[in-house]
Amino acid sequence: MSEKRGLDAELEAKSIQKYDKNVEAKAVEWMAQVSGCQFGPDFYESIKDGVILCKVAEAVMPGSVGNYVEKPVHVLESKANIDAYLSACNELGIPSQDMFTQRDLSENNKDLGQVLNNIYSLARQAQALGFEGPTLGVTYYKTREEQKALQRKKDLERDRERVMREEYEEMLKQKRLDAEQKKRERREVKLAQSSERRLQREEQRKERGRDSYLKTISTSSPIEDTMRDISVSPVKYGMDAEHAIKMEEKYDYELEERIMDWIEDVTGFAMNSFYDDLCNGQVLCHLINSIKPNMIPLVHTRDQALLERENIKFFVNACRGLGVNQGDLFEVNDLYDRHNIGQVLNCLYALTQVLEMSSWYAGPRLNGRKAGGDGPPRFSCNHLPYFLKDQPVPRGCSAILFLAAFFNFGIFCWIRKLGWVLYFLETHVVRLPIDTAPQHTSLSCVFQ
Predict the structure, then answer these.
(1) Contact (CB, 8 A) for 124 and 137
(2) In 138-237, alpha helices (H)
(3) Which of 30, 104, 399, 427 could share a disulfide with 100, CB 3.0–4.6 Å?
(4) 392-394 and 440-442: which strand pairing?
(5) Taking the CA of residue 133 as centre, how many other CA atoms within 13 Å lie in the half-sphere pointing to its CB?
């Protein structure tokens, strides 16, 4: 027998330490009285062939064991005796937690503690069955009929719990079906509205004569995309469903039309549907390259999900490089899996605002505002309080105002106050000569 090491050795040592010889002696005495067999000095050697165990079970209830080998000469015969004893224990009603296995009586992995637990359980069950012989352990007051009644009660409770669980699962299934049906109805309505807007855009483009020079990029059918969204996206319940509906109601379709017109003006690609034309990322990449040539050197055109998602990632990184705030950017799943189209629209709008504040950009503008600065903004004047925007500021105070705008919270508010105190002193108290007077500019352009 190989020596055990590590955790196996520790477990074996703990099992030996917990083993009680007095409990073993009482079990040996009871089994000897019931079976009429003599035990040797080693308890394990006396019961490992299963003969004494079968005789004890047969004495408690005659006929429970059946045939067994009284003088086994092979290990397989000993295992057959132990199997016969365990089958008899099941018939006698021994709880499963008090049963042992063939492994517990093997030479290499014996567990005599579990075997003793089984023997004590058999002695208690013998009292319940009306066995009039010697007793072992505590007195057991429940009869076999009471045990059967208790078992029937437990079975009824299990059946009741099973029925309740099945009803609850059926209710959840029906709830999901209803939610899917409502979602499908909303998608059908949105599909009809999207098709109507698509037709309107095509008619307006024809009226304005834009079809002659606008290019197109092949996209998948909007019906296929809508059905994919219904089948793949998770069904939402409760507050999540209410939040999703409110997000759909807040979506600005008027801004979407303006953004699509702006993309057409910049890229020269026809925009019929916001999601269908942008989901593969090609138009977005061409948009960035039209704004700043070769900013995205590689645009994937193959119809593969991984490449399309990479196109969208290129666009998001380019927006970050052009100066769009991190809070205005979107994730790839927001567009490709249609998780948050509103955030995609917000990112494009933020991009238009950044470009309108940049003097280097000479392309079409969403609002037609003039550029005011020397380069792409690293900082938006939206960080400033509303009452400080578009106010004349001397260039000498630009650094202080930059700190005031950057630390527009907490203990650094005094920097902003100091800047305006200096501005007040410089403009109202200290009268500078005309030729040395500071040149004023708009605060909206201080951070360009």
Answers:
(1) yes
(2) 144-208, 222-232
(3) 104
(4) antiparallel
(5) 22
Q: Which residues pair with 440 in a beta bridge?
A: 394
d(CA 59, CA 36): 10
Tokens of 141: 């007051």
d(CA 444, CA 448): 8
Residue 129 identity:
L
Helix (H, G, I), strand (E, B), or coil: what is residue 442? strand
The three-state secondary structure class of 269 is: strand
* Cα atoms in the Cβ-side hemisphere of radius 13 Å centred on 220: 16
Q: Residue 52 in 3-state DSSP?
A: helix
**Using only C-alpha atoms, what is the Rg of the chain?**
42
Residue pair 415/403 in contact (Cβ under 8 Å)? The answer is yes
Closest to 384 measured CA to CA, from 399, 357, 404? 404
- Please state, in angstroms and as integers, the Cα–Cα distance from residue 139 to each residue in 78, 91, 135, 157, 242, following that order: 32, 21, 8, 28, 62
3-state secondary structure at position 61: coil
pLDDT at position 400, please? Answer: 52
Three-state DSSP class for residue 232: helix
| Bridge partner list, 337 | none
What letters, b where the CB count within 10 A reaches 16 and e where it falls short, cover 134-147? eebeeebeeeeeee
* CA dist., res. 24 & res. 116, Å (int): 7
Q: Which residues contact 234 (CB under 8 A, 6 or more apart)?
A: none
Per DSSP, the three-state class of 224 is: helix
Exposed/middle/buried for residue 123 (C-beta within 10 Å: 0-12, 13-18, 19+)? buried
Residue 32 C-alpha from the chain's centroid: 61
pLDDT of residue 312: 94
Residues 6+ apart with CB under 8 A from 16: none
The position carrying tokens 């045939």 is 67
Cα–Cα distance measured from residue 77 to residue 68, given in angstroms and rounded to the nearest whole number: 8
User: According to the model, what pLDDT value does residue 437 have?
Assistant: 39
Under-70 pLDDT residues of the chain: 1-3, 140-141, 205, 207-237, 367-448
Q: How does DSSP assign 30-50, residue by residue?
A: HHHHHH-PPP-S-HHHHHTTS
Angle at 123 between CA 117 and CA 125, to 5 degrees: 100
The two structure tokens encoding residue 108 = 């290499």
Determine how many CB atoms are found less than 10 A away from the CB of residue 119: 23
Neighbouring CB atoms inside 10 A of 124's CB total 19
Residue 49's contacts (CB-CB under 8 Å, 6 or more residues apart) are 72, 77, 78, 81
In the chain, what is the straight-line distance between the N-terminal and C-terminal CA atoms, in Å?
Answer: 83
